[in-house]
Design goal:
Layout: H1 3-24, H2 28-50, H3 60-69, H4 78-85, H5 87-92, H6 106-129
Helix pairs in contact: 1-2, 1-6, 2-3, 2-6
């Protein structure tokens, strides 16, 4: 595995671990932001390893489309992708909460952490096949 890929995976894992710690501290917006970042970085790690053009986007839907075009299928639904895609911008700037329709809570954070964990597992599985 490329050193750069390992670095991206390390950062992705740190984001996932941070998301869990922030959740335990009832810091829901940053917990969600770190879950989103973990997903994004795991996917981009795969791009790097496979020599795919690294997209300068935070849009998980777009990144996932590139994976699908390369016969990589993550254990994530379209609704989950939509949820994760609502997080990035809203968690960076004080527009209110991360989620546009309601305040984030423990349950939504747990859902996003679960999604991030599944993406991490899938990416690791596909990287072992490389």
């Amino acid at each position: 595995m490329k050193d750069e890929t390992k670095q991206w995976l390390k950062y992705a894992d740190e984001n996932l671990q941070s998301s869990k710690i922030l959740l335990e501290s009832h810091l829901y917006n940053p917990s969600l932001q770190n879950a989103q970042q973990s997903i994004e970085k795991n996917i981009k790690a795969y791009f790097i390893e496979k020599g795919l053009k690294l997209q300068k986007t935070h849009n998980i839907s777009s990144l996932n489309e590139t994976l699908i075009q390369n016969n990589i299928f993550l254990n994530i639904t379209d609704d989950e992708i939509d949820l994760i895609d609502t997080i990035y911008l809203s968690s960076k700037y004080p527009f209110g909460s991360v989620l546009p329709d309601f305040e984030p809570d423990k349950d939504i954070c747990l859902q996003c952490i679960d999604i991030a964990f599944r993406v991490q597992e899938d990416i690791q599985k596909y990287l072992k096949k490389v």
